[in-house]
Amino acid sequence: MKTKLLLLVCLVSGMSSQTVTLLAQGSLTPPGGAPAPTMRSLDQIDAKLEKRTPISSAPYPISQPGSYYLTGNVTATTGDAITVASNGVTIDLNGFTISSTSPTASGTAILLGNNIHDVTIRNGHIVSGTTVNGSNFSNGPGFVHGIRYTTNSVYNVLISDVTVSGCNSSGIDLAFGQTVVESCTVSVAGGYGITASTIRNCTAANIGLTAIYSNTVSGSSGSQVGPTNYYGVFGQSVINCYGISSAGFGIYGYSVLNSYGQTSTGTYGILGETIVGFY
User: Fold this and answer.
1) N or C: which end of the chain has fewer CB within 10 A?
2) Share of the chain residues as helix, strand and coil, in percent rounded to the nearest 5
3) How deeply is 139 buried, as exposed, middle or buried, from its count of CB atoms within 10 A (0-12, 13-18, 19+)?
4) Consecutive H or E run containing 7
5) Cα–Cα distance between 204 and 147 in angstroms, integer?
6) What are the extents of the domains in the chain?
């Protein structure tokens, strides 16, 4: 400790005998005024890194593969809001809503073209104006369908974390072609609620025809309020599901495991070839 203190004193003493010249600094005021902000928002950074394309209005046709995202709520006046005519498309609704002001039911919120594949739609809402009274559905206003394919089947399609409400016909209709719908909710649809090859962790309530219609359905619930011969949940494999029907079967499946089915005026709560752990 003594050696270090002596060395420090020597250094200070040596510096004191030298002349130190201090130069005056220039003006600290930047030329041209205060600097403008240069930081970008997270959305701007994400868009640049991912090369995403913004969607800010409807109708909006997608004819090129890539990543697209909503910048805010989007409203169609009539017909389709977003049409997908290309494979390899991702649409991030970004937490926003697609709606329609059509006075009677018209078009589809997101329409997939013929033989479209490798498409992902996620994270947002589709709102329409159809209401239900008992088993009678109004004709709009708003959309006929929420998300739907055109005529020929689609495949390799994923829909996740999307809510759909008040559609005159189908909520989410992808048919069977390696299609997956997960963590989605459909409320009030005059036709089918959710249709896909695989449905998991979804809810469809106040549906005119079959609420949940799938090859493999798990962790989901469906409530059907329309005519006979339709189901709360229909699937080849039904696992951990709840199905209720006003006049048809609560659950109809080849293999039904740990599920609950109920019917108001129909014959069976659950009908299946193999039923295990039913309630």
Assistant:
1) N
2) 10, 45, 45
3) middle
4) helix 2-16
5) 14
6) 42-209, 210-279
